[in-house]
Specification:
This protein is mostly beta strands and 160 residues long. It contains 1 helix and 11 strands; from the N terminus they run αβββββββββββ.
């Protein structure tokens, strides 16, 4: 016979494991294209939640992105912006916009020939209609006080 004191910890361990597996299954490297990186080579882009290619985002939810890149030159600054193009480019607010301050995972100045991981978050807006066809998103990190494109990545996404 199982007692409550034995069953409750087992359920907690199982629940914790299930949550970890669920989050891991929704994080995946995505397919992307380089669209003009001048100061680095991007090796991998990971987005959560993303369980398909292209990623399908639910409007009103928060997404988490990580970009691994190897710098080819030094930069005193690193600022990020993104756009999604439906009929015309629309800004996508990615936080932090200053990748060196506020949780972007970077410490400026960026050194040449160094591997970095930028970590950003964005809120998937409710305002655009659901997009059942892939649309392009472009994310750029600017350096040297916005005079150089450290990296530029392009990937497709859908919203529901």
């Amino acid at each position: 016979m199982l007692t409550i004191s034995y069953v409750v910890p087992q359920i907690a361990i199982l629940s914790s494991l299930l949550c970890t597996v669920t989050v891991w299954a929704q994080t995946r490297p995505i397919m992307f294209q380089d669209c003009g990186s001048e100061g680095s080579r991007v090796s991998q882009v990971r987005i959560t939640p993303c369980s398909s290619d292209p990623c399908v985002f639910v409007r009103g939810t928060k997404l988490h992105a990580e970009v691994d890149f190897l710098t080819t030159r030094a930069s005193p600054t690193a600022d990020i912006n993104a756009t999604i193009t439906i009929f015309y480019p629309m800004a996508v607010p990615i936080l932090p916009a200053n990748a060196c301050v506020g949780g972007g995972g970077l410490s400026c100045p960026l050194a040449a020939n160094t591997l970095y991981t930028f970590t950003g978050h964005a809120q998937v807006l409710r305002s655009p209609p659901p997009l059942y066809l892939p649309v392009p998103m472009i994310a750029r990190m600017y350096g040297d006080n916005n005079s150089t494109v450290i990296f530029c990545i392009k990937f497709n996404l859908e919203t529901r």
